[in-house]
Specification:
This protein has seven helices and 19 strands. The protein has helices at residues 15-24, 67-75, 119-128, 170-176, 185-192, 258-273, 337-351, and strands at residues 2-11, 31-34, 46-47, 55-56, 80-82, 88-92, 100-103, 112-114, 133-135, 140-145, 150-154, 157-166, 178-180, 202-208, 222-224, 229-234, 243-249, 280-287, 322-324. The chain crosses the membrane at residues 6-24.
Length: 355
């Protein structure tokens, strides 16, 4: 097995890992990112089909209070645009009730999406990393403290690094990577019981030729307490020239096959819009439970948001050489893109004076 030396080894090429590498790039240090999947982005996925609206199947929305990620987007010259909700929503409280068209409350709050899809942020960050090595299909197996550095065994080679930053969901890190000497129980207990954002979510979307939901007696905003679709929104492009509906499907649909999920979703949409809902261009989905490099395999129940942003994630381990980072570790907007970027900034502030 070959060996490689680096100054900072980042485990995971999602938003936290790529942002950290971007922040480190001007420090004249060697940074390496390893990613277990064959593509980068972590919980950011955008499906793009020719002449159709891009569909985000992972992280999607931003709000004005999420200043760190919005400032990053501005620095990278990436545009955002306002999410269209309309003035009404289709609401179905339970299966025995007919869907209703209800008025949405008037408020000044807005949310944004990233032009051309959230993956634009991932692609732009990657293009900034001229001197950063990104190795896909490479997963860390173990981390061991040596005299002056850390030894990291992967499925392909051995790395020796001054610092290691894991950006994996904490529960996944705890399950898949052995650490020597063992981490103190104060951190391992929290790792095991930290909720993983998106771990059981199902994101689905349909693209269309026309925005048939945009008329006074309809809406592209759907809230349903029953049926496969729970929340749906207009997902048309920034220019409002390519059209789509996208949102969340019930986690109970995870064990069905894709064809059945699509069928049930179309039946629900048809009950709201009529047969025009069947005239879709494409259907895309992501069942996050099936993403083995995102979700751990334990059956133990963890409450939503449990231990997200726990104080133990502020402490580096193994002689202050190992950092546990990522969207679940930041206390503000935990699990969101803002938390991922904020976590990267925190680790950068800890590392920048070490070189």
């Amino acid at each position: 097995m070959t060996t490689q030396n680096t100054d900072v080894l980042i485990i995971g090429a999602g938003l936290t890992g790529l942002t950290l590498a971007y922040l480190l790039k001007d420090l004249n240090i060697k940074t390496t990112i390893i990613e277990a999947n064959n593509s980068i982005g972590g919980r950011i996925i955008t499906r793009r089909n020719t002449n159709e609206a891009p569909l985000d199947l992972g992280a999607t929305w931003l709000v004005p209070q999420q200043t760190n990620v919005l400032n990053l987007l501005k620095a990278l010259n990436i545009e955002v645009f306002e999410q269209y909700y309309g003035k009404t929503a289709i609401y179905q409280p339970n299966p025995t009730k007919q869907p209703q068209l209800v008025s949405l409350p008037n408020n000044d709050s807005v949310s944004y999406r990233i032009k051309n899809g959230t993956q634009t942020l991932i692609e732009t960050l990657k293009n900034q990393l001229d001197h950063t090595t990104i190795q896909t299909n490479t997963n860390a197996v173990s981390i061991q403290l040596k005299a002056e550095n850390l030894e990291i065994q992967t499925n392909k080679q051995t790395f020796y690094s001054k610092y290691v930053v894991s950006t994996l969901p904490p529960a996944l890190f705890n399950q898949n990577i052995s650490v020597t000497p063992k981490l103190p129980s104060v951190i391992t207990d929290v790792l095991t019981k930290t909720h993983t954002w998106m771990h059981n979510s199902i994101r689905v979307g349909f693209t269309y030729k026309t925005p048939f939901w945009k008329h006074p007696q309809s809406s592209g905003t759907i809230y349903a307490n029953s049926g496969p679709i729970q929340e749906f929104y207009d997902h048309s492009n920034a220019e409002q020239s390519l059209y789509a509906l996208s949102g969340f499907m019930s986690a109970n649909m995870a064990d069905l096959d894709q064809a059945k999920r699509k069928q049930l979703a179309l039946e629900q949409l048809t009950s709201y819009y009529g047969d025009i809902a069947l005239e879709y261009l494409s259907y895309e989905e992501c069942v996050w439970k099936n993403q083995k490099h995102t979700t751990n395999t334990t059956d133990s129940f963890v409450m939503p948001k449990q231990n997200n942003g726990h104080p133990v994630y502020k402490t580096p381990y193994l002689n202050k050489k190992l950092f546990i980072a990522g969207a679940e570790t930041s206390p503000l907007f935990s699990g969101k893109m803002e938390a991922a970027v904020t976590s990267a900034m925190y680790v950068f502030s800890s590392l920048k004076n070490s070189f």
